[in-house]
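TODO from last week: model FAD-dependent oxidoreductase domain-containing protein 2-like.
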Amino acid sequence: MLPHIVWLIWLYMQVIITNCTTNQPELKKDYCIIGAGPSGLQLGYFLHKAGRDYLIFERTNTSGAFFIDYPRHRTMISINKRNTGKTNKEFNLRHDWNSLLSDDDSLQMRHYSHDFFPHADVFVKYLQDYTEKHGINVKYNTNIVNVKRRDKFEFQMQDQSNNTYDCGTVIVGTGLSLPNIPHFKGVEHTVGYEDMSMDKADYEGKTVLIMGKGNSGFETADYIMSATNFIHMFSRTPYKLAWNTHYVGVLRNRTVYTYIEEFPVNLLDQLRTKTGHDTEEVLVIIMQYGKKRFLKKFTGIPGKAHLSYFLHPVLYYYDELPSSKNLLLSTHV
Ligand SMILES: Cc1cc2nc3c(=O)[nH]c(=O)nc-3n(C[C@H](O)[C@H](O)[C@H](O)COP(=O)(O)OP(=O)(O)OC[C@H]3O[C@@H](n4cnc5c(N)ncnc54)[C@H](O)[C@@H]3O)c2cc1C
């Protein structure tokens, strides 16, 4: 009999110990979103609107924390074209690359900055306002360090203080912010974009090699150009321009693309001296009458606009500035 009693006491103690040491979930949510960056907040907005049981977990003490440090040179590369001449909201949103989707029109970047490329601090403020005005639920200072699947449909997450959270669905919105460090001999002598000095005096009169011709490479070149002696830029492949590829991840930097309005096309050969832009490639957009002017007709078909009598935009591309002689010979410009 005695061994049985001892065994029962031991079992009872184990149950008590297990209950004491198992982390009871601090919270249970149908939807757990990790990260209060633009993507987490946008999803939070729609879940909130739909009345769902959700919570965003953010390791810092603010929304949009990525943009407190990045871009390092503090100018966004996403455009804020405030006026398009149109009232169509969807069309206008295509010219506003910063605002999140919202029913509240006051939450548009156009009301926060008049700059075409806004300051990154303004975007942080925008994301904080977006969170507050919509009442999006965010648990700040909560770094999720572990996510495990408990059974078929449930997840359990753990934060830095061993608090646990039960979640029906987990959505990871933690961004892609780890530096991409290349492997080559001597890489230890290089300084990454994430650590580079922002004091222009450190580059005074120096020759700087920038590896990479993407947005951060050109952003850096743009920033230090006034101090350096020479800047060399290396890349495995030629740079690609976003306006060319339609992929926003490739180069959008202004160093290589400047918009000049109403420059007389017959003076194109003098572009450098007249404007000071030491340019190579030129894309010219002009309004032009169709070749068959005598037809005096409106085709109504965009692809046949060149047949039309009416003015229509025509693009010309030069991979180097035309000479004055070439301009005279040219049939188009
Ligand atoms: C150098 C650089 C410059 C850029 N400049 C621009 C620009 O000018 N304009 C533009 O539109 N885009 C820019 N981008 C792209 C932009 O940063 C991303 O598209 C955008 O931040 C992605 O949003 P996100 O919500 O997915 O991630 P993020 O904005 O990175 O947000 C992720 C959030 O998750 C949090 N988090 C991460 N891990 C955890 C965890 N374990 N637990 C809890 N929270 C966590 C982070 O603190 C952060 O707040 C730039 C990117 C880079 C690298």
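Done. Residues 34-40, 57-60, 65-66, 70-71, 76-78, 97, 143-144, 173-175, 177, 216 surround flavin-adenine dinucleotide (CB under 6 Å).
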